[in-house]
Amino acid sequence: MSAPEQGSDFSVPVEPIDLPLPELVVVLAGGLSHERDVSLRSGRRVAQALRSRGLDVLESDVDSTLVPRLGETPDAVVFPVLHGEAGEDGALREVLALLGVPFVGSIGSASRVAFDKSIATTVVADAGLTVPTQVALPHEIFRELGAQALVAALGDQIGFPMMVKPSRGGSALGCSKVSTPAELPAAMVGAYAYGPVAVVESFVEGTEVTVAVVDRGHGPAALPAVEIRPDSGVYDYTARYTAGTTRFLCPAELPADVATRCADVALRVHEELGLRDLSRTDLIISGGEPVFLEVNVAPGMTETSAVPLASEAAGWSLGKMCADLVAVAAARGGRPAVVAPA
Amino acid sequence: MRHPWGVESTPGQGAGRDGSQPPVLRRQDTRLDSYVDRYAARTHGMTASAIRALFAVANRPEVVSLAGGMPNIADLPLDVVGSSLQDLVLNRGLQAMQYGSGQGEPEIREAICEVMRLEGISAHPDDVTVTVGSQQALDLATRIFCDPGDVVLCEAPSYVGALGVFRSYQCDVAHVAMDEQGLVPEALREAVLALRAAGRKVKFVYTIPSFHNPAGVTQSLERREAILAVAEETDLLVVEDNPYGLLGFDADPIPAIRSLSDDRVVYLGTFSKTFAPGFRIGWVLAPHAVREKLVLAQESATLCPPTFSQFAITAYLAQHDWQGQIKVFAEMYRERRDAMLAGLADNMPAGVTWTVPAGGFYVWVTLPPGFDAQAMLPRAVTARVAYVPGTAFYADGFGSRHLRLSYCFPTPERILEGTRRLGDVLAREADLMSTFGTSVSGPRTPELSTHLAPGTNQA
User: Fold this and answer.
1) Which terminus has fewer CB within 10 Å in chain A: N or C?
2) Helices B78-96 and B307-319, interaxial angle, to 10°?
3) Annotated catalytic residue, options A33, A35, A39, A88
4) Once rounded to an integer, what is the mean pLDDT over residues B95-110?
């Protein structure tokens, strides 16, 4: 596995390039996805963190007033803290680029690939990283080919236990661990409640960690891994958003070489998927090897989220990290989403 | 060369940041809640909920929410209320903004007796205790009657907010069957006898006789008499919750159970649906010994119920045709009920059935076997329609084949659109059911009921 070439010492926190801050930051949160509530919590925290650094912040939902409002604030930088569809699937980012509005985070096309687990996993696997065995299935295929035959084939191919997830979505919504064939149909129905395509993956047993990658103007740097130990054994919605139900260790309790590999993997994912500014890669350490589960272009920033913990562990307040990201976006300016072929 | 993060084994300063040495970090080991080991046992289950979070989406204008129970108070005469409040502040402000009696102000207790008279109740103001909405009446009644582990009997299904109160006092809820006339007396008798035979303490039966939330059914007078007879026979206390009784569409109100018995019934009432919920004024009418304890419990809970709200409501009742206003409300709700029933008739797939309420806010829908309304809710929200899954109204995880639709807040046009969207959602769910089979059966793992329903300020 080759390390990315750009930058040096990029898992070491370095002071950002001294960049001017914009007059106004528009924090986008809410939206109509299933994760609206989480997004509102993340957005409030990011907005408060930016205000603590003296920035002028406007919190905005995503509705028909947004585009005119952005037109009235030409010098603003947008910080999208939208989870789930529209926010993470790239659609809104395409619009921001179209409007020439500078924004924090990955561009639309990269977000679209990263958000869809069925596509992102393939790209990451093609880059030589370890991923679970995965099958992506739209619900129509079960109807057309017969559920029984497909369920049996999944059992043979993936084996039990397996994970069933909606292909697009976060916060573990619609995700189930399936231990027996009898549980699979209900798990599929549960995943399809959140979207038309589900992925079925081999269940990877091991230590759960998540690694944020942040670019504060010097190239991407991995923050220390956050190890996640939910009391219930399952890092589901309740374990994610109920303070006290999950133990977080940062840096993770890992041998130094494994911690390095986790940082390498997160940086490789960030680079291979063409991500920008900020991402968070979720991994399971199995037999000392990090296995890629998914990557988030708008990672959670709530009171119980991992990225703020990692930022603080690295010695930066969340406000400092967010302000640096805003400064980088402001310096970059608004650019068209469509990149001309080389 | 990149560095892994070094970790200090002993407490120390934060990350080194000179850029030349591996940074030395002090490992954080946190649950993000330093009080996690100190909470009372009754907080168990007070967790984040994915279903509850969906109602944040349902509250957006793009979504037709048939989930919430907010009364539509747009028809209130705000000019009348406004000038009445101005008079109140200018003329009696020093009294209205002062502490008041723990039992509630004498004037409003007299007025409450007039309100209850419309449903056949003859009561003395001394036996009325004013509360912060009838929700607090329920809380105080449970507080004075129930120890942890006591059993409260509830209809199947029952009001989600009541289940939350019983849970918070660590009571066990046993559900009792209903039919098209509400609580089934014979099932009530069997439940009481079986529980007592098993050594359980049954403290009371909680019932909503008129325009039931969520089931939409109403007990006939004969049914009320039969329920009371079982209560007499088994020496059971009845807690009668009647928020919607005056919001009937067709006939005069059926006499309350309390009108049939002075000493076996604790009766809960509210101004939230007949006037406005923001004042947070309800009441409990109870036999004198019970009332004494309710007043002491109220004093320890709030010192006194909101004085200003009590004066405001008293003035409204004195200065406005409040009974005429209730008729205006009822007509408006009837039109919405009709829209709901028409929309359901047009849009529900075969095999779906629903109740036809003669008043109140809610229709209770039963889906064909195998459907799971709770699992289906994300799909509905994607289709921009919301409801409350039936599981919210059961303490034991049952109810997944049901859902509650409310017609109180959206306009008739929006209600029709909501039923169209719900029809599409059910059609797609039926498609999935036919593909995967109807493997869902039995109860879900019980979740806190209030996790499965929207907050009071959500449409």
Assistant:
1) C
2) 130
3) A35
4) 98
The position carrying tokens 């500078």 is A102
DSSP state of B452: G
d(CA B404, CA B420): 16
Residues B125/B291, Cβ–Cβ less than 8 Å: no
Q: Which domains does chain A have, with CATH numbers?
A: 24-127+205-332 (3.30.470.20), 134-202 (3.30.1490.20)
Active-site pick, A39, A176, A305, A311 = A305
Interface of B with A in 364-383 (CB under 8 A): 372, 375-379, 381-382
Q: pLDDT tens-digit profile of B24-66? A: 567 999 999 999 999 999 898 889 999 899 999 998 999 999 9
Q: What is the chain B residue with the closest CA to A310?
A: B28
CB atoms within 10 A of CB A197: 20
- Which residues in B276-383 belong to E strands, given as ranges? 282-285, 353-354, 362-366
When pLDDT is cut at 50, 70 and 90, the band that residue A17 belongs to is: low
- A96 interface with B at CB cutoff 8 Å: no
Q: Which residue of A has its CA nearest to B54?
A: A34
Say if CB B15 and CB A314 are below 8 A apart: yes
Residues near A261 by beta carbon (within 8 Å), at least 6 away in sequence = A289, A290
For chain A, give the percent of residues with pLDDT over 90: 82
Catalytic residue among A171, A176, A202, A279: A171
In contact, A24 and B28? CB cutoff 8 Å? no
Chain B positions touching A10 (Cβ under 8 A) are 2
Within an 8 Å CB–CB cutoff, is residue A62 touching chain B? no
**Cα(B286)–Cα(B130) distance, integer angstroms:** 11
B149-168 tens-digit pLDDT: 999 999 999 999 999 999 99
Chain B: closest CA distance from residue A121 (Å): 25
Contact A312 B381 (CB under 8 A): no
Name the 3-class secondary structure at B5: coil
- Measured CA to CA, the distance from residue A48 to residue A53 in angstroms comes to 9
> What's the sign of the alpha-carbon dihedral A155, A158, A162, A164?
negative
Instruction: Please list the residues that pair with A201 across neighbouring strands.
Output: A134, A163
Whether residue A294 is annotated as binding a ligand: the answer is yes
Q: What is the per-residue DSSP string for B367-417?
A: PPTT--HHHHHHHHHHTTEE-EEGGGG-SSS--TTEEEEE-SSS-HHHHHH
**Contacts with B447 from chain A: Cβ below 8 Å:** none
Count the alpha carbons within 13 Å of A326 in the hemisphere toward its beta carbon.
31
Annotated catalytic residue A176:
no
Average pLDDT, chain B: 92
A35 given a catalytic annotation? yes
Known active-site residue A305: yes
CA triplet B190, B195, B197: central angle to 5 degrees? 95
Domains of chain B: 50-70+324-435 (3.90.1150.10), 78-320 (3.40.640.10)
Q: Can you tell me the ipTM of this complex? A: 0.89
Structure confidence at residue B44 (pLDDT): 86
**In the block, residue with structure tokens 């403290």:** B203
Residue B240 CB: number of other CB atoms within 10 A? Answer: 27
Model-wide pTM > 0.90: yes
Strand B388-389, strand B402-406: pairing: antiparallel
Residues of B in contact with A241 (CB under 8 A): 48, 53
Distances (CA, A) of A147 to A85, A190, B379, B435, B437: 28, 15, 20, 6, 9
Q: What is the 3-state secondary structure (H, E, C) of B46-64?
A: CCCCHHHHHHHHHCCCCCE
DSSP E strands: which ranges in chain A?
A: 24-28, 57-60, 76-80, 134-138, 162-166, 176-178, 197-202, 207-215, 220-222, 226-230, 246-250, 278-286, 289-296
